[in-house]
Design brief:
single chain, alpha/beta, Dihydrodipicolinate Reductase, domain 2, seven-stranded mixed beta sheet, four-stranded parallel beta sheet, arginine biosynthesis
Length: about 300
Protein backbone atom coordinates (compact mmCIF):
# COMPACT_ATOMS: atom_id res chain seq x y z
CA UNK A 1 0.00 0.00 0.00
CA UNK A 2 2.85 2.42 0.77
CA UNK A 3 4.55 1.43 -2.50
CA UNK A 4 1.46 2.67 -4.37
CA UNK A 5 0.61 5.63 -2.11
CA UNK A 6 0.91 8.85 -4.17
CA UNK A 7 2.31 10.87 -1.24
CA UNK A 8 4.72 8.29 0.22
CA UNK A 9 8.31 7.39 -0.61
CA UNK A 10 9.75 4.40 1.27
CA UNK A 11 13.19 5.33 2.62
CA UNK A 12 14.11 2.06 4.35
CA UNK A 13 12.62 -1.24 5.51
CA UNK A 14 14.30 -2.41 8.70
CA UNK A 15 14.55 -6.11 9.54
CA UNK A 16 16.36 -8.10 12.20
CA UNK A 17 16.12 -11.35 10.19
CA UNK A 18 16.26 -10.33 6.50
CA UNK A 19 18.89 -7.55 6.38
CA UNK A 20 20.67 -7.53 3.02
CA UNK A 21 17.93 -9.39 1.16
CA UNK A 22 15.76 -7.72 -1.50
CA UNK A 23 12.34 -6.86 -0.07
CA UNK A 24 10.79 -8.63 -3.07
CA UNK A 25 12.50 -11.90 -2.13
CA UNK A 26 10.33 -12.04 0.99
CA UNK A 27 7.25 -10.15 -0.24
CA UNK A 28 7.24 -11.82 -3.63
CA UNK A 29 4.23 -9.92 -4.99
CA UNK A 30 6.55 -6.89 -5.11
CA UNK A 31 8.88 -8.43 -7.71
CA UNK A 32 9.32 -5.78 -10.38
CA UNK A 33 7.73 -3.14 -8.14
CA UNK A 34 10.68 -2.16 -5.93
CA UNK A 35 14.46 -2.49 -5.70
CA UNK A 36 14.49 -1.88 -1.92
CA UNK A 37 16.76 -4.05 0.21
CA UNK A 38 16.09 -4.83 3.87
CA UNK A 39 18.31 -2.77 6.17
CA UNK A 40 19.72 -3.41 9.64
CA UNK A 41 19.92 0.37 10.24
CA UNK A 42 17.33 3.11 10.50
CA UNK A 43 17.34 6.61 9.04
CA UNK A 44 16.48 8.80 12.06
CA UNK A 45 15.47 11.75 9.85
CA UNK A 46 12.43 10.19 8.13
CA UNK A 47 9.08 11.99 8.37
CA UNK A 48 7.20 8.94 9.63
CA UNK A 49 8.15 5.48 10.82
CA UNK A 50 5.82 2.48 11.15
CA UNK A 51 6.73 0.03 13.91
CA UNK A 52 5.71 -3.54 13.03
CA UNK A 53 7.88 -5.30 15.57
CA UNK A 54 5.51 -7.58 17.41
CA UNK A 55 3.81 -6.94 20.70
CA UNK A 56 6.00 -5.77 23.55
CA UNK A 57 8.99 -4.85 21.40
CA UNK A 58 8.35 -1.25 20.37
CA UNK A 59 9.45 0.39 23.63
CA UNK A 60 12.77 -1.46 23.56
CA UNK A 61 13.31 -0.55 19.89
CA UNK A 62 12.65 3.16 20.56
CA UNK A 63 15.02 3.09 23.52
CA UNK A 64 17.78 1.82 21.20
CA UNK A 65 16.92 3.92 18.12
CA UNK A 66 16.44 7.66 18.49
CA UNK A 67 14.48 9.53 15.80
CA UNK A 68 14.47 13.23 14.94
CA UNK A 69 12.16 15.61 16.77
CA UNK A 70 10.01 15.95 13.62
CA UNK A 71 9.62 12.19 13.03
CA UNK A 72 6.12 10.87 13.59
CA UNK A 73 5.71 7.32 14.85
CA UNK A 74 2.84 4.92 14.18
CA UNK A 75 3.11 1.75 16.28
CA UNK A 76 1.18 -1.31 15.11
CA UNK A 77 2.05 -3.21 18.30
CA UNK A 78 0.27 -3.01 21.64
CA UNK A 79 2.97 -1.23 23.69
CA UNK A 80 1.27 2.19 23.84
CA UNK A 81 -2.46 1.50 23.41
CA UNK A 82 -3.49 1.78 27.04
CA UNK A 83 -3.47 5.19 28.70
CA UNK A 84 -1.14 4.01 31.47
CA UNK A 85 1.46 2.95 28.87
CA UNK A 86 1.09 5.85 26.43
CA UNK A 87 3.81 8.23 27.69
CA UNK A 88 6.90 8.55 25.47
CA UNK A 89 9.57 11.30 25.45
CA UNK A 90 7.46 13.64 27.60
CA UNK A 91 4.60 13.23 25.14
CA UNK A 92 1.81 10.69 24.69
CA UNK A 93 0.77 8.21 22.06
CA UNK A 94 -2.73 8.98 20.81
CA UNK A 95 -5.00 5.97 20.37
CA UNK A 96 -5.33 5.73 16.59
CA UNK A 97 -8.96 4.83 15.95
CA UNK A 98 -9.88 7.58 13.45
CA UNK A 99 -13.63 7.19 13.94
CA UNK A 100 -13.14 8.02 17.63
CA UNK A 101 -10.09 10.31 17.84
CA UNK A 102 -9.79 12.00 14.45
CA UNK A 103 -9.03 15.52 15.67
CA UNK A 104 -6.40 14.30 18.16
CA UNK A 105 -4.79 12.14 15.45
CA UNK A 106 -4.47 15.14 13.13
CA UNK A 107 -2.35 16.93 15.73
CA UNK A 108 -0.46 13.91 17.08
CA UNK A 109 3.19 13.00 16.69
CA UNK A 110 2.82 9.47 18.05
CA UNK A 111 0.01 7.03 17.25
CA UNK A 112 -0.86 3.67 18.84
CA UNK A 113 -2.61 1.76 16.05
CA UNK A 114 -5.53 -0.29 17.47
CA UNK A 115 -5.68 -4.07 17.51
CA UNK A 116 -7.68 -5.83 14.81
CA UNK A 117 -10.34 -7.39 17.06
CA UNK A 118 -10.47 -4.11 18.99
CA UNK A 119 -11.13 -2.14 15.79
CA UNK A 120 -14.05 -4.32 14.67
CA UNK A 121 -15.59 -4.44 18.16
CA UNK A 122 -15.19 -0.76 19.03
CA UNK A 123 -16.69 0.37 15.72
CA UNK A 124 -19.65 -1.89 16.49
CA UNK A 125 -20.18 -0.39 19.97
CA UNK A 126 -19.11 3.27 19.94
CA UNK A 127 -22.42 4.71 18.63
CA UNK A 128 -24.22 2.94 21.48
CA UNK A 129 -21.73 4.27 24.03
CA UNK A 130 -22.00 7.78 22.56
CA UNK A 131 -25.75 7.67 23.24
CA UNK A 132 -25.46 6.07 26.72
CA UNK A 133 -27.14 2.87 25.52
CA UNK A 134 -24.67 0.30 26.89
CA UNK A 135 -26.50 -0.50 30.11
CA UNK A 136 -26.55 -4.30 30.01
CA UNK A 137 -23.92 -7.03 29.59
CA UNK A 138 -22.28 -7.14 26.13
CA UNK A 139 -21.73 -10.56 24.57
CA UNK A 140 -19.18 -10.79 21.73
CA UNK A 141 -18.26 -13.71 19.51
CA UNK A 142 -15.66 -12.87 16.84
CA UNK A 143 -13.72 -15.06 14.42
CA UNK A 144 -10.42 -14.10 12.79
CA UNK A 145 -8.44 -15.49 9.88
CA UNK A 146 -5.09 -17.24 10.25
CA UNK A 147 -3.12 -14.14 9.17
CA UNK A 148 -3.96 -12.57 12.52
CA UNK A 149 -1.41 -14.89 14.14
CA UNK A 150 1.61 -13.36 12.37
CA UNK A 151 4.31 -14.78 10.12
CA UNK A 152 5.89 -17.35 12.48
CA UNK A 153 4.03 -20.69 12.28
CA UNK A 154 2.77 -22.28 15.47
CA UNK A 155 0.79 -25.34 16.43
CA UNK A 156 -2.56 -23.64 15.80
CA UNK A 157 -1.61 -21.70 12.64
CA UNK A 158 -0.27 -24.54 10.47
CA UNK A 159 -2.57 -25.18 7.50
CA UNK A 160 -2.88 -28.87 8.40
CA UNK A 161 -4.33 -27.92 11.81
CA UNK A 162 -6.35 -24.88 10.73
CA UNK A 163 -7.93 -26.43 7.61
CA UNK A 164 -11.50 -27.68 8.20
CA UNK A 165 -11.14 -26.76 11.86
CA UNK A 166 -12.29 -24.14 14.34
CA UNK A 167 -11.48 -23.29 17.96
CA UNK A 168 -11.72 -20.49 20.48
CA UNK A 169 -8.81 -19.10 22.50
CA UNK A 170 -8.18 -16.65 25.35
CA UNK A 171 -11.89 -16.75 26.19
CA UNK A 172 -12.97 -13.79 28.36
CA UNK A 173 -9.36 -12.52 28.65
CA UNK A 174 -8.11 -11.54 25.19
CA UNK A 175 -5.48 -8.77 25.27
CA UNK A 176 -7.65 -6.43 23.17
CA UNK A 177 -10.28 -6.21 25.92
CA UNK A 178 -8.26 -3.53 27.73
CA UNK A 179 -8.34 -1.06 24.84
CA UNK A 180 -12.00 -1.86 24.08
CA UNK A 181 -13.12 -1.16 27.65
CA UNK A 182 -10.89 1.94 27.84
CA UNK A 183 -12.62 3.43 24.78
CA UNK A 184 -16.10 2.60 26.07
CA UNK A 185 -15.30 4.23 29.43
CA UNK A 186 -14.05 7.35 27.63
CA UNK A 187 -17.18 7.52 25.46
CA UNK A 188 -20.00 6.59 27.86
CA UNK A 189 -19.90 8.30 31.24
CA UNK A 190 -20.04 5.75 34.04
CA UNK A 191 -19.68 2.72 31.78
CA UNK A 192 -19.22 -0.37 33.95
CA UNK A 193 -20.96 -3.22 32.13
CA UNK A 194 -19.55 -6.71 31.61
CA UNK A 195 -17.86 -7.24 28.25
CA UNK A 196 -17.81 -10.99 27.55
CA UNK A 197 -15.59 -11.72 24.55
CA UNK A 198 -15.00 -15.11 22.90
CA UNK A 199 -12.35 -14.91 20.13
CA UNK A 200 -12.28 -17.74 17.58
CA UNK A 201 -9.77 -19.04 15.03
CA UNK A 202 -11.43 -19.43 11.64
CA UNK A 203 -10.72 -21.69 8.68
CA UNK A 204 -9.86 -18.78 6.36
CA UNK A 205 -6.87 -16.50 5.91
CA UNK A 206 -8.18 -12.92 6.13
CA UNK A 207 -10.94 -11.05 7.86
CA UNK A 208 -12.76 -10.69 11.16
CA UNK A 209 -16.46 -11.54 11.52
CA UNK A 210 -17.82 -10.29 14.82
CA UNK A 211 -21.31 -10.66 16.29
CA UNK A 212 -22.25 -8.67 19.39
CA UNK A 213 -25.52 -8.56 21.30
CA UNK A 214 -26.90 -6.62 24.24
CA UNK A 215 -30.29 -5.53 25.53
CA UNK A 216 -31.91 -2.19 24.78
CA UNK A 217 -35.52 -0.98 24.63
CA UNK A 218 -34.74 1.45 21.80
CA UNK A 219 -36.33 0.64 18.44
CA UNK A 220 -34.21 -0.53 15.51
CA UNK A 221 -35.08 2.67 13.63
CA UNK A 222 -33.75 4.80 16.50
CA UNK A 223 -30.56 2.74 16.72
CA UNK A 224 -29.93 2.94 12.98
CA UNK A 225 -30.22 6.75 13.21
CA UNK A 226 -27.60 6.80 15.99
CA UNK A 227 -25.17 4.74 13.90
CA UNK A 228 -25.75 6.73 10.72
CA UNK A 229 -25.25 9.98 12.62
CA UNK A 230 -22.06 8.77 14.33
CA UNK A 231 -20.50 7.58 11.05
CA UNK A 232 -21.90 10.19 8.64
CA UNK A 233 -18.44 11.71 8.00
CA UNK A 234 -16.45 8.47 8.19
CA UNK A 235 -15.46 7.30 4.70
CA UNK A 236 -14.67 3.69 5.58
CA UNK A 237 -17.65 2.71 7.77
CA UNK A 238 -20.91 1.50 6.21
CA UNK A 239 -24.11 0.92 8.23
CA UNK A 240 -26.83 -1.42 6.97
CA UNK A 241 -29.74 -3.57 8.14
CA UNK A 242 -28.95 -6.22 5.52
CA UNK A 243 -27.11 -9.46 6.24
CA UNK A 244 -23.36 -9.11 5.57
CA UNK A 245 -20.42 -11.45 4.89
CA UNK A 246 -16.62 -11.27 4.91
CA UNK A 247 -16.03 -11.13 1.16
CA UNK A 248 -17.54 -7.64 1.19
CA UNK A 249 -14.53 -6.24 3.07
CA UNK A 250 -11.52 -8.51 2.45
CA UNK A 251 -8.68 -6.53 0.78
CA UNK A 252 -10.37 -3.21 1.62
CA UNK A 253 -10.12 -0.66 4.45
CA UNK A 254 -13.88 -0.82 5.08
CA UNK A 255 -15.83 -1.79 8.15
CA UNK A 256 -19.43 -2.80 7.46
CA UNK A 257 -21.84 -2.83 10.40
CA UNK A 258 -25.19 -4.63 10.25
CA UNK A 259 -27.98 -4.00 12.77
CA UNK A 260 -31.00 -6.14 13.68
CA UNK A 261 -33.33 -6.57 16.69
CA UNK A 262 -35.21 -9.49 18.24
CA UNK A 263 -37.47 -8.31 21.04
CA UNK A 264 -35.15 -6.41 23.45
CA UNK A 265 -31.96 -7.89 22.01
CA UNK A 266 -29.88 -5.82 19.61
CA UNK A 267 -27.52 -7.79 17.35
CA UNK A 268 -24.60 -5.88 15.82
CA UNK A 269 -22.46 -7.61 13.18
CA UNK A 270 -19.11 -6.01 12.34
CA UNK A 271 -16.71 -7.11 9.59
CA UNK A 272 -13.23 -5.91 8.59
CA UNK A 273 -10.09 -7.18 6.88
CA UNK A 274 -7.79 -7.86 9.84
CA UNK A 275 -4.67 -6.91 7.82
CA UNK A 276 -6.06 -3.70 6.29
CA UNK A 277 -8.60 -1.86 8.47
CA UNK A 278 -7.37 -4.02 11.35
CA UNK A 279 -3.70 -3.08 10.88
CA UNK A 280 -1.81 -1.65 7.88
CA UNK A 281 -4.69 0.19 6.18
CA UNK A 282 -5.68 1.89 9.42
CA UNK A 283 -2.02 2.85 9.98
CA UNK A 284 -1.95 4.56 6.58
CA UNK A 285 -5.33 6.17 7.31
CA UNK A 286 -3.71 7.61 10.44
CA UNK A 287 -0.69 8.79 8.42
CA UNK A 288 -3.01 10.56 5.99
CA UNK A 289 -4.72 12.40 8.85
CA UNK A 290 -1.42 13.33 10.55
CA UNK A 291 0.03 14.88 7.38
CA UNK A 292 -3.14 16.59 6.16
CA UNK A 293 -3.73 14.28 3.18
CA UNK A 294 -7.24 13.36 2.09
CA UNK A 295 -8.21 10.50 4.40
CA UNK A 296 -8.80 7.93 1.64
CA UNK A 297 -5.49 8.60 -0.17
CA UNK A 298 -3.92 5.30 -1.21
CA UNK A 299 -6.75 3.32 0.41
CA UNK A 300 -9.40 3.10 -2.26
CA UNK A 301 -8.89 -0.65 -2.38
CA UNK A 302 -11.42 -3.06 -3.84
CA UNK A 303 -12.29 -6.57 -2.77
CA UNK A 304 -10.81 -9.20 -5.05
CA UNK A 305 -12.64 -12.18 -3.60
CA UNK A 306 -15.87 -12.46 -5.57
Amino acid sequence: MLQNHPKANIDFVYSTTNAGKPVSSVHQDLIGETSLVFSDKVNPEVNVVFLCLGHGKSKAFLAENQFASHTRIIDLGNDFRLKNDAVYNDSEFVYGLPEMNKEQIKKAQFIANPGCFATAIQLALLPLAENNLLNESIHINATTGSTGAGVQPSETTHHSWRNNNMSHYKAFEHQHLGEIIQSLEQTQNGFSQEVLFIPNRGDFTRGIFGTLYTKTNKSLAEIVKHYESYYQNEPFVVVTTEAIHLKQVVQTNKCIISLMKKDDYLLVTSIIDNLVKGASGQAIQNMNLMFGFEEKTGLQLKSGNF
